[in-house]
Design goal:
Shape: elongated
Helix content: 40-55%
Number of strands: 0
Order of helices and strands: HHH
Radius of gyration: 14 Å
Oligomer: single chain
Distance between the termini: 49 Å
Strand content: under 5%
């Protein structure tokens, strides 16, 4: 989805299905939720909800983890 959506507009019906398919494909190819949110002009929560609705297995946060002090 090259163009950004107007912030706060409702996305319903076939437009939502098309957006969900596009976001799923991009997320599965490695883009982060934050990158997708920035690219579409929508919030992190909106993208997260759309991906969850489509049944995507979300990746872990990654990054460094703290080790227990022995």
């Amino acid at each position: 989805m090259a163009e950004t959506l107007r912030k706060g507009t409702r996305v319903t019906g076939t437009e939502r299905d098309k957006l969900a398919t596009d976001l799923k494909k991009r997320y599965d190819s490695g883009e982060s939720i934050r990158a997708l949110a920035h690219a579409t002009g929508r919030s992190y929560g909106f993208i997260h909800r759309i991906l969850t609705e489509t049944g995507v297995a979300l990746r872990g946060r990654g990054g460094a983890t703290r080790k227990a002090v022995a």
